[in-house]
Amino acid sequence: MAAVLETSILPGDPDLKNIAQKVYNDQRITDEEALLLFEKGSLGFVGSLANFVREKLHGDITYFNRNFHIEPTNACIYTCNFCSYSRLYAHRDEAWELGLEQMMDIVKKYDGEPVTEVHIVGGVHPKMNLEFFAELLRKIKAHRPDLHIKGFTAVELDYMFRKAKKTAEEGLFYLKEAGLESLPGGGAEIFAEDIRKQICPDKVDSDGWLHIHGTAHRLGMHTNATMLYGHIESFADRVDHMRRLRELQDQTKGFNTFIPLKFRNKDNDMSHVPESTLVEDMRLYAIARIYMDNFPHLKAYWPMLGRQNAQMSLSFGVNDLDGTIDDTTKIYSMAGAEEQTPSMSTQDLVVLIKQARRQPVERGTLYNVIKDYGAEELV
Ligand code: V47
Ligand code: SF4
């Protein structure tokens, strides 16, 4: 390890130097050290540490998958201030609400296509209940048993379960029997209660979100975790959020991927809050990779970050770029993301990853390797 230390750019600050030594020696950093990285760590410094961790875990491998989204509705009973998506009250005329057959038509559009995952996520509609979604899951599985169903944020699940008077365990068991295989990471936002109260006061609270994910893990399901950053939260709030996730992961080992989500400020009630800079985005990815030592994967969600910034994140700890998506999600385009029609072909993703001198690997939802594109010529 001495050789690594000698060749790396170590800062003069003894506390930062100590953190570098811990990372190179495979030791966990503390909350205070993570905070110090946010306060004092230059992009080059945190980036090189994160890259060390990333390459130790995955070498150059960069995963992507072939997926599509179903968004059952953009109507939502909640009033998250950062949301540009929900259309229940303010813009009823722009609201949509899909029936079972319309959603099955979306699934059938992919018949014969080599997609491996459907990601179901949407607003919380008072009329779409547990039984309705269980029926959707059964229909998808009957039509295409090989498709992995990743569906419903803890926010959607919390509402469905409470309405059906079921515990998280009962509700998840029921949906699992119907075909649900894993949970996406949405709805976590920021756990710090004082900030959560200001940006999303009325949906599931932090303990409720963590309880649903912990319960899913105990039932043998894998899940992801997100953090909405770059709005009114402090560095300490980010560390607090990641600490709660790291602690749950120590107990359950059920999280696959951590996905930081950059706050976008178009057309929502927080449009006055400026968006974070690219340097701040990359520093966040890097510090997350260093601190979240028990999360196997760190994902940059390219429709939100933009494809060039997502490409750059591959040098700051990120080893997963989510999926081809195929223009089936509206959440980010409505919030002002660069990607107004988010769609990338497999070839686009392979080239993007190769240009960053990484090794593209198509994966299934649970990171089973489907195809390694490493040996193919760059075009
Ligand atoms: O929870 C809403 C976010 C999330 C804005 O698990 C916003 O693989 C930024 O969680 N600016 C839903 N973000 C999407 C999500 C997700 C996406 C891709 C993959 C996975 C996965 C999960 O979208 C919400 C919220 O945090 N969001 N509005 C906004 N203005
Ligand atoms: Fe509803 Fe999700 Fe938007 Fe909040 S972020 S208002 S829960 S759709």
Task: Offer a few descriptive terms.
binds ligand V47, 15 helices, 379 residues, iron, four-stranded mixed sheet, 2 domains, alpha/beta, 11 strands, single chain, four-stranded parallel sheet, TIM Barrel, binds iron/sulfur cluster
Write up this protein:
With 379 residues, the protein is of the alpha/beta class. It has two domains: 7-55, no CATH class; 60-372, Alpha-Beta Barrel (TIM Barrel), CATH 3.20.20. Helices cover 42% and strands 13% of the residues. The chain is built from 15 helices and eleven strands. The strands form three sheets. Strands 9-1-10-11 form a four-stranded mixed beta sheet, with helices on one face. It has a four-stranded parallel beta sheet with strand order 5-6-7-8. The protein has a three-stranded parallel beta sheet with strand order 2-3-4, with helices on one face. Strand 6, helix 11 (235-252) and strand 7 (255-262) form a beta-alpha-beta unit. The longest helix has 18 residues, at 235-252. The protein is globular, with a radius of gyration of 20 Å. It starts with a helix and ends in a 7-residue tail after the last strand. The structure holds ligand V47 and iron/sulfur cluster.
CATH topology of the largest domain: TIM Barrel
List the total number of helices.
Answer: 15
| Low-pLDDT stretches | none
Indicate the radius of gyration in whole angstroms.
20 Å
Compact summary:
The chain has 15 helices and 11 strands. Helix 3 (31-40) runs antiparallel to helix 12 (278-291).
Topology:
Elements: H1 2-7, H2 14-24, H3 31-40, H4 43-58, E1 61-65, E2 67-70, H5 100-109, E3 117-120, H6 130-143, E4 148-151, H7 154-163, H8 168-178, E5 182-183, H9 193-199, H10 206-218, E6 222-229, H11 235-252, E7 255-262, H12 278-291, E8 297-298, H13 302-305, H14 307-313, E9 320-323, H15 346-355, E10 359-363, E11 369-372
Parallel strand pairs: 1-9, 1-10, 2-3, 3-4, 5-6, 6-7, 7-8
Antiparallel strand pairs: 10-11
Residues 76, 78, 80, 83, 85-86, 123-124, 155, 200, 203 line the site of iron/sulfur cluster.
